[in-house]
Amino acid sequence: MGLKEWLIPQDKQFFDLFDRLAAVVVVASYRLVDLVDDFTDVKSKVDNLERLEHDGDKITHEIYEHLNRTFITPLDPEDISKLASALDDVLDYIEGTAQRMYNYGITDTDAYMVELAKLIQLSVVELEDAVKGIRTMKNPHQIEHRCIEVNRLENLADDILAHAINDLFRTEDPIAIIKQKDVYEYLEIATDKCEDAANVLSDIAIRHS
């Protein structure tokens, strides 16, 4: 055991909780892609995403509770809080997008929604791998590489959103414009939240490199 490990006990519960939270976010991203790719049985799929969001909330609450009870943490407490919040936000926007689609009575999805959902999915898979990496911090450069990829995907989402809104305003139905624009923006914000999580993970990796 090294001096650092002797001085700072490696509380594995935080890492277990982050692994669980990241896994829920990944599952939710796959459910979102399934929803926009096959827009059938919508209510059941939205309900499933809502249950996943509730599961994520419970895990996030556990992280905060454990943080409040722990005097010495394996990561900076602020990083723990920021990472939990960012991952929970991703889940919130995934579920929020699905709820909007259902509540707005959207009857079909389009290529832009599918592309944005798939970018979210790719991003959270990268985040899950990066989260797993902070447990041992054996390869901080690999964590940074994952985070850079999430940033790249977020930039792609910005471009897709711009094209989607540009095409949308060529239509003549103002109600449809409002509804679809909100869905597009919620999907893009989910990628912003992925980038927020990636930035926290990158900061952690840099401090341990």
Describe it:
- This protein is mainly α and 209 residues long.
- It has one domain: Phosphate transport system protein phou homolog 2, domain 2 (Methane Monooxygenase Hydroxylase, Chain G, domain 1, Up-down Bundle), CATH 1.20.58.220.
- The chain has seven helices and no strands.
- It has helices spanning 3-7, 12-37, 42-69, 77-103, 111-133, 140-168, 174-207.
- Helix 5 (111-133) runs antiparallel to helix 6 (140-168).
- The model is unreliable at 1-8 (pLDDT under 50).
- Any idea what the radius of gyration is? 18 Å
Proportion in β-strands: under 5%
Question: First CA to last CA: what distance?
Answer: 19 Å
CATH topology description: Methane Monooxygenase Hydroxylase, Chain G, domain 1
Largest sheet: none
The structural class is mainly alpha
The portion of residues assigned to helices is over 70%
Given as residue ranges, the uncertain stretches (5+ residues, pLDDT < 50) are: 1-8
**Separate helix tally:** 7
Categorize the overall geometry.
Answer: globular
CATH class: Mainly Alpha
> What CATH architecture label applies?
Up-down Bundle
Element string (H = helix, E = strand) = HHHHHHH
Summarize the structure.
The chain has 209 residues and is mainly α.
Name some characteristics of this structure:
209 residues, mainly alpha
Question: Secondary-structure map with pairings?
Answer:
Elements: H1 3-7, H2 12-37, H3 42-69, H4 77-103, H5 111-133, H6 140-168, H7 174-207
